[in-house]
Amino acid sequence: MEGMILQPRFKDSEHFRNFWTMGNGKSLLDFSGAEVNFDHFEQFSPYFYHVDEVGDQVVKDIYFKKNFHDASKEMEGYIRNGVSEQDGVPESVKQLFSQTQAIPAWLDYRLIKKGAELCMRSNLDALISLRDYCLMGGYDYAYLNKPLIATEALKKGAVKRLSETLDFWVNVTRYDALKLHQKGYEFAVKTRLIHSYARLSIKKHVKNWDTENWGEPINSWDMMATYIGFSLVFMHSLHKLGTIISEEEEKGMFHLWKYVGYLLGIPEHLLPNNKQEATQYFYLWTSVQPPADKDSVLLAHSLLNESLINPALRYQFQRKNLRYLHICCTWFLLDDDVCKRLQIPEVAYRKAFPLVKRTITKIYEKTVSREARISKGNQAQMKVLNDYHSIMENSNFHSS
User: Fold this and answer.
1) Rg of the chain taking only CA atoms, in angstroms
2) Residues 337, 25 contacting (CB under 8 angstroms)
3) CB under 8 Å to 68, separation ≥6 — which residues?
């Protein structure tokens, strides 16, 4: 937004200071070896008011001029078959695909493969990390959640949100998924357009959107933080759960999400190459985010209670047990302060399951070959995704 100057307004706040001196922020600093400061804050802060204008224009030119189903079918054709300068399509569509079809000079498919293999071999620990650390931890950042509230994520329910997040994550982290016109590439470009559609809808319908404080809806800086969640924060969670990550896998993970971010229209220089950069970038971003508010608590509890309404498990006692295990993992992976702000229930023996899980992971890594772990992890993750697909396709199931 022209003329707005953002300051690191929460850098002296208790929640920011505690996170970076005693909580997971301190742990991230130890994990990454990063040195953090505010020297380059002004290089990043303008992106709080920056959006993907190309994606927005495509939505205006295609989605807002047809019914949603027809527009989606048309874009699907372009994504799967490509677009050339000669095609009779709107200029915005040509611009979108001239970027996404251009392979960046820095792209290394070998590194992307290493990142994908880490995602697969981490098996169900990956899904625990995504749910109980990345997603739940994100709810502690009050302004980051405002677009979710504006698009009525609570009414749609946590089952739907988890299903969509899992669908995206699994499909961009398989072998060769990000090659042009493949499934991961398709998911990335479609997600980019969904973000633009949501942003334009918020700007049209939400009259009290507080741009100065909240930034533009789904702005580039918030997008950067989200994708640091999929790389740095995700690996930090795996580390807590006992996974040993090689240097090459670590490079591969950042490379994979850098390319996904590139396809999503996040400015390249906001996408970190390693854990030192990611920690520094994340540090700056957290200084403009207040702690959890009442909306955060509602989102957190919707996620917690997802296990109780998800029909993947037949019996209520199974669902209650699964909810208990997720609560244990949330307390183990997140700061106590964050859990208290999100009003995560206190439960007995909350460290037992995560500590046993960590021990099992360490033994599994030593006794099972890497190739077998990749294959087994892929199968386990695909089974969970297919379970969610079945649930969402069941017309009798309502997630709200």
Assistant:
1) 21
2) no
3) none
Q: Are 344 and 331 in contact (CB under 8 A)?
A: yes
Quick one: angle between helices 316-333 and 352-367, nearest 10?
80
> Mind spelling out the 3-state secondary structure of 226-289?
HHHHHHHHHHHHHHHCCCCCCHHHHHHHHHHHHHHHHHCCCCHHHCCCCHHHHHHHHHHHHCCC
Secondary structure (H, E, C), 122-178? CHHHHHHHHHHHHHHHHCCCCHHHHHHHHCCHHHHCHHHHHHHHHHHHHHHCCCCCC
How far apart CA 399 and CA 245 sit, in angstroms, is 36
H or E element, residue 17: helix 14-21
Residue 112's contacts (CB-CB under 8 Å, 6 or more residues apart) are 178, 252, 255, 256, 259
pTM of the shown model: 0.95
Give the pLDDT confidence of 202-250 residue by residue, as tens digits. 999 999 999 999 999 999 999 999 999 999 999 999 999 999 999 999 9
